[in-house]
Design goal:
The chain is of the alpha+beta class. A five-stranded antiparallel sheet has the order 10-7-6-5-13. Strands 2-3-1-4 form a four-stranded antiparallel sheet. A four-stranded antiparallel sheet has the order 9-8-11-12, with no helix packed on it. A hairpin with a 4-residue loop joins strand 2 and strand 3.
Length: about 290
């Protein structure tokens, strides 16, 4: 059984052994535990017009645990945050001020990765690509996993699921990156080259609105996971209120930009601005 739990929902937890692949927890409050974790820097594109914009965001971020410093650039429309806090929390906090935010880079070079989670291509049907709560979307995308290596053997994992049926889901890293047939083509749970890692990364609950979030630290290096698949599966028929009888979503872990490594404002392929791309991704179900 995985030991990863939703960090944001936990205020007091028992110490758990730091075995290979296991989540490292501390017997302390959430604030104390976050202060014991290594911090990382992340940059976000945010529409910044004046000092009032900065003050609004500063005020919102001041209520978030784990943040050690923030810097703002109005000309570049960039916010830099050093913290132990999950990117999804930082993004939602900035969005609470009425401004959007795009994660541009996080962590040291070659220490960050992302995984778009979607219905396996072999399972896609008209009924499946229409989310139960947002029928205007026509996309197989059901979520996003962000991975940021914060020390030699510790990675922050931030998973957000959207438009999935209510129930409990498990997430695991798999041996291959072949998502064509879902779990069947991804292979067995990957336990590292020496077989000593915990490939069962955690359990999360999706609510009646179709959303779920899982944040925690896993004992993996990002480089060990790049190119391999992540598989999210419903746990038990009794816990799953699905529409397709299977309900799994999968994705391939790919490297993403480290902090200050991504200065793109217009895509060289599509010609779209980062904000146009952002709206397109939101329309597909990514957050």
């Amino acid at each position: 059984m995985s030991v990863l739990s939703r960090r944001a929902a936990i205020t007091s937890i028992s110490a758990i052994s730091a075995a290979a692949g296991a989540t490292i927890y501390y017997q302390n409050t959430k604030t104390k535990r976050q202060s014991m974790l290594p911090s990382y820097e992340a940059t976000f594109s945010v529409p910044l017009e004046c000092d009032a914009c900065i003050n609004d965001i500063k005020s919102a971020l001041s209520k978030v645990d784990g943040i050690t410093s923030t810097t703002f650039s109005i000309p570049s429309h960039l916010v830099s945050i050093t913290s132990t806090t999950a990117p999804s929390t930082l993004i939602s906090t900035i969005q609470s001020t009425g401004r959007d935010a795009i994660l541009r880079g996080s962590g040291a070079p070659n220490s960050a990765a992302v995984c778009i989670l979607e219905i396996p291509p072999s399972s896609v049907s008209t009924s499946q690509i229409t989310p139960p709560t947002q029928s205007k979307y026509r996309s197989p995308v059901r979520g996003l996993a962000r991975l940021i290596q914060i020390s030699e053997k510790l990675t922050l994992m931030d998973v957000t699921l959207t438009s999935l049926p209510r129930g409990r889901y498990s997430i695991s890293v798999r041996k291959t990156g072949d998502i064509s047939c879902g779990a069947a083509s991804l292979g067995d749970i990957y336990r590292g080259e020496d077989g000593d890692r915990n490939g069962e990364l955690g359990v999360l609950e999706v609510d009646e609105k179709g959303r779920g979030n899982l944040v925690g630290e896993v004992g993996w290096r990002v480089g060990e996971m790049v190119g391999r698949g992540l598989c999210v599966q419903p746990i038990g028929a009794d816990d799953f209120h699905g529409i397709d009888g299977k309900g799994e979503v999968v994705g391939v872990v790919a490297r993403s930009a480290g902090v200050w490594e991504n200065e793109k404002v217009v895509c060289g392929c599509s010609g779209k601005t980062i904000w146009e791309e952002r709206q397109e991704m939101v329309g597909k179900g990514m957050v």
